[in-house]
């Protein structure tokens, strides 16, 4: 399912196949939490901005409209009319970050919905049931994402439990996807490495979950407030223990520089709400650095957001017009900005792939890694 095409140092160029298509890696997955990209982008828009994989959220879709509703409507692909690959996260991160009053036991977690406070129980089996109903191509393991900073004893107990949960996830998903009315029988489960910022726990946990021989592995629980250098150190510590012939996914990361630097450390899959969230606040990425579209200096600027960008927005609209839309609080300001930023991220990973194909990734990294995060 994963073909490693080429390497340059630790960086990898690969190809990943799943029931809804082939994905060229490294790849940035576009986050549609509630089966929609925030900023009013549709599945049709995603087809025009180079999206390879759409990511939806188990916790949110379980609450609204309900995974049973999605299943009755033919699964997530049919429901949102996106025919490419879909990854669903497990709900673990949201249970631990959004939901109120949670209680963790060996069986799973009892928590209050962030919408209306009603009590919900979610454990490995419930998360797999929901993801099987949604019918994504990649289902993520149900794990605990511990708070940062965490104490060593807590992080150790937590990642031991997460390892036990993963074995239950594997068993449950096989069972659900063997049912005659399974939405996507080819759905696969990826494991998630945890262990907070403790390298020995991270390595122990990675070795444990690698034994389950899953088709992909993620590094979770990073970019939760620790310094960037700590995040890179953890990736470097864990990477040698990740199976070479399986895709690696760094969850929830990050800036353009974080992506380039993590590719250089052997990561293949990324997702982050940041490009869409920044765009909604007028913070846009360009090949010269990041700019603030609300800035007065763009009042009479007839050039596109990024003269080097050939996205549908940059081909048509000026900075002056988009700045006006922000000032007038028109929804179109957000839509156009999100479209540009996601296109930029999709293009960024495309350029990384091209550089890897040509054996020039180290030059690409030297030219862009620092520059793309700077403000202009
Ligand atoms: Zn653009």
Class computed from helices, strands and strand pairing: alpha/beta
Oligomer: single chain
Q: Spatial order of the strands in the main sheet?
A: 4-5-6-10-11-12-13-14
Beta fraction of the residues?
15-25%
> What's the alpha carbon Rg, rounded to whole Å?
20 Å
Secondary-structure element order, N to C: EEEEHEHHHEHEEEHEHEHEHEHEHEEHHH
Largest sheet: 8 strands, parallel, barrel
- Spatial gap, N to C terminus: 41 Å
What is the number of E strands? 16
Instruction: Report the uncertain regions.
Output: none
What average pLDDT do the residues reach? 96
> Helical segment tally?
14
The set of bound ligands, ions and cofactors reads: zinc ion
Shape: globular
Assign a percent range to the helix content. Answer: 25-40%
Write a brief structural summary:
The chain is α/β, with parallel strands linked by helices and 376 residues long.
Task: Describe the 3D structure.
The protein is an alpha/beta fold. The strands form 4 sheets. An 8-stranded parallel beta barrel has the order 4-5-6-10-11-12-13-14, surrounded by 4 helices. Bound molecules: zinc ion. Zinc ion (ZN) binds next to α13.
Structural features:
376 residues; three-stranded antiparallel sheet; 14 helices; binds zinc ion; globular; 40% helix
Question: Layout of SSEs?
Answer:
Elements: E1 2-8, E2 11-18, E3 21-25, E4 27-31, H1 43-48, E5 54-57, H2 58-63, H3 67-72, H4 76-80, E6 86-89, H5 92-97, E7 100-104, E8 109-112, E9 119-122, H6 124-134, E10 138-140, H7 152-177, E11 188-193, H8 199-210, E12 216-219, H9 228-238, E13 248-250, H10 256-263, E14 269-271, H11 274-280, E15 283-286, E16 289-292, H12 319-327, H13 331-358, H14 361-368
Parallel strand pairs: 4-5, 4-14, 5-6, 6-10, 10-11, 11-12, 12-13, 13-14
Antiparallel strand pairs: 1-2, 2-3, 7-8, 8-9, 15-16
The structure holds zinc ion.
């Amino acid at each position: 399912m994963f073909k490693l095409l080429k390497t340059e140092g630790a960086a990898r160029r690969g190809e990943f196949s799943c029931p809804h298509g082939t994905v060229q890696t490294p790849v940035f997955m576009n986050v549609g939490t509630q089966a929609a990209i925030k900023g009013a982008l549709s599945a049709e828009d995603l087809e025009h901005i180079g999206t390879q994989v759409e990511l939806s959220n188990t916790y949110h879709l379980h609450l609204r409209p309900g995974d049973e509703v999605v299943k009755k409507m033919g699964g997530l692909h049919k429901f949102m009319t996106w025919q490419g690959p879909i990854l669903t996260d497990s709900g673990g991160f949201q249970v631990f970050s959004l939901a109120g009053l949670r209680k963790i036991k060996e069986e799973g977690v009892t928590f209050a919905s962030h919408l209306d406070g009603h009590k919900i129980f979610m454990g490995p089996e419930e998360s797999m049931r929901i993801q099987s109903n949604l019918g994504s191509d990649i289902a993520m393991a149900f794990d605990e994402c511990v708070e940062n900073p965490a104490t060593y004893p807590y992080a150790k107990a937590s990642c031991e439990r997460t390892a036990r949960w993963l074995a239950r996830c594997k068993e449950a998903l096989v069972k659900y996807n063997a049912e005659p009315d399974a939405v996507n029988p080819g759905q696969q489960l990826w494991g998630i490495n945890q262990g907070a910022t403790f390298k020995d726990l991270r390595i122990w946990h990675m070795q444990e979950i690698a034994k389950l021989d899953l088709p992909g592995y993620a590094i979770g629980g990073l970019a939760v407030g620790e310094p960037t250098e700590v995040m890179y150190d953890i990736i470097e510590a864990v990477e040698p223990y990740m199976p070479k012939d399986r895709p690696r996914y760094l969850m929830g990361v990050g800036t353009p520089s974080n992506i380039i630097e993590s590719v250089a450390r052997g990561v293949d899959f990324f997702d982050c709400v940041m490009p869409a969230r920044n765009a909604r606040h007028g913070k846009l990425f360009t090949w010269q650095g990041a700019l603030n579209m609300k800035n007065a200096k763009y009042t009479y600027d007839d050039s596109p957001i990024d003269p080097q960008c050939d996205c549908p927005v940059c081909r048509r609209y000026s900075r002056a017009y988009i700045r006006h839309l922000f000032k007038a609080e028109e929804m179109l300001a957000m839509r156009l900005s999100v479209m540009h930023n996601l296109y930029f991220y999709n293009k960024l990973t495309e350029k990384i792939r091209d550089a890897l194909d040509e054996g020039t990734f180290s030059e690409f990294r030297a030219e862009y890694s620092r520059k793309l995060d700077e403000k202009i």
